[in-house]
Amino acid sequence: MENPFFIGSKFGWLLFSPGNALTLLAVFAWFCLVFGWLKLSRSFLSSVVFLMLITCTLPVGEWLLAPLENRFSANPALPISPTGIIVLGGAVDPVMSEAWGQTEIGEAAERVTTLLYMANLYPDSQLIFTGGSGLISEQSFKEADYVRFLFKELTLGERGVLVESESRNTEENVIYSKALLNPQPDQDWILVTSAFHMPRAVGVFCQANWPVIPYPVDHRSNRNNLLRLSLDFSKNLSLLEEAAHEWVGLIAYRITGRTDRFIAGDHNQCNIG
């Protein structure tokens, strides 16, 4: 049976996506104009213009991402010999990889490159990449399958990288990985994911009674220069989409009990008795 939360989250995002919201406002403005509702049309059009100007000139997405990316320290101290390294999916586009017959890595490439770095740093630790397909359709194309192919190309095939290819979101990343690894309380597991996604991921791991050591990568906000003009509409809109998606995810996960706190951080790690 299909997971209602997974389906609901995908359709719900269609309403909360900033890009979709701008498009809908523009459509409403045109619709009102066609029917002669000029005052309402002007209101919708003014909203579109205002939001586009804000997005075009200010790094609003970075302002929303920065509080999440600052929750955990970059380049934290790591154990000498961890049990394993867990890398969450989100770096590879499985549909494009299938279309072109090679592994297509996107903006979150640091998740994969950090796994390669960890593989050399910890030759005796278990490596696991967890990620299937986050799409409602195209479930036959799994991100982890193409990551496995990439590891073979990079001669890591003999290293024994464990890939979990059935998970479709962060909750399932944790559930399926825990079932595969059966982690014990005295073990050290390093978690690698994008910095803005780390608070939600750590919260889900804590909810599953699986404490991890966060190693955030793929930072999107320029913490040294947030108060600036940023005349790049497409980039600003893309970052705003990322930020809105993550904040909506945090709220939804907390409301539905999928995380043990709203925003996890360095100073409020898992409280496991």
Spell out the blueprint of helices and strands:
Blueprint: H1 4-16, H2 18-34, H3 38-57, H4 60-69, E1 84-88, H5 94-100, H6 110-121, E2 126-130, H7 143-153, E3 162-164, H8 170-181, E4 189-194, H9 198-207, E5 213-217, H10 233-255
Parallel strand pairs: 1-2, 1-4, 2-3, 4-5
Helix content: 40-55%
Oligomer: single chain
The profile of the biggest β sheet is: 5 strands, parallel
Please state the CA-atom Rg, rounded to the nearest Å.
20 Å
Going across the biggest sheet, name each strand in turn: 3-2-1-4-5
Strand content: 5-15%
* Mean pLDDT metric: 89
CATH names the topology of the largest domain as Rossmann fold
Fourth-tier CATH superfamily name of the largest domain: HUPs
Describe it:
This protein has 273 residues and is α/β, with parallel strands linked by helices. It folds into 2 domains: 4-57; 78-219, HUPs (Rossmann fold, 3-Layer(aba) Sandwich), CATH 3.40.50. It is built from 10 helices and 5 strands. A 5-stranded parallel β-sheet has the order 3-2-1-4-5, sandwiched between helices. Helix 2 runs antiparallel to helix 3. The longest helix is centred in the last third of the chain and has 23 residues, at 233-255. It is elongated and about 70 Å long. The mean pLDDT is 89.
